[in-house]
Write a structure and sequence with these properties.
Blueprint lengths: L1 H9 L3 H9 L3 H6 L1 H10 L10 H9 L11 E4 L1 H4 L4 H9 L4 E4 H10 L5 H19 L3 E4 L13 H13 L4 E4 L3 H13 L7 E4 L7 H24 L11 E3 L2 E3 L5 E3 L10
Amino acid sequence: MILSLYADILSISFEEILILYEINLFKRVMMNMNRYLEISKQRSNSPYFEIPTKEIEDKRRRLNFYDSFLGKKIYIDSNILMEDCTKLIDELIYNKLNIEIPKIQYNEIYNLTKSEDKEKSFKSRNALRNIEILLDNDLIDFNNIDINKRDKNAYADPEFLKIIFNDLTKGKKVIFITDDRDLRIQFKIKLKQQQQFIKSLSIYSLEELEYPQYIKKEIEEMEEFNSYQKELHSSVPKAKKKKKGTGHIGSWLVEENGSIMIDVPEINGGLW
């Protein structure tokens, strides 16, 4: 019953599943089913293929993305901290990158936890959770925060402009991560007016960031897939000539006596 279910999921015949089982590749296919299905859709016309080396190397080049963050002051806008930025937090911790939290930004987030808007209140509490994770990892530099004094009207956007350009004036290099398009535009306008700082300030949206810790896993999966391909291809018997009375089931040859032989290393148009 279970083998029949997997055959349905993979859109191949029960006989093909049996052969996979017999040649000890069934468990590997099940463990990597999503990856196999994804790639097979992309390469459905090719009976045998490997993920191109260039594709893997392109990913490998992205592993050093955060090297350019070293030695720079890093600010993360509240709209990033309020969302699911787990991957970014993981990278900051892995690379031991400190971020700056200005007093006005912290107060703005804190004030929103008391908002009657349930969504804003939830997101601001999520931001505080992310801040606490970074604080527990000694990765936050609080900028003159006084927890005994709260500015109920705190609004960080215009202050980010002042604080960051003040850093640039002092010769600091800065990374600013924000999904606020209007704020990015304001920064770009000011940079056009003060072009001496263009190379000292890098602005990213969350979407523009890379996540090397996750890319590493993708590379491992791709390399493992290629090794499976080579192993399978080298272990497949050469196709026998079709005898009278034989017929195909999917990509497999079935003789009159019921014995099954591999015809080509392909399952339903490109799984292998």
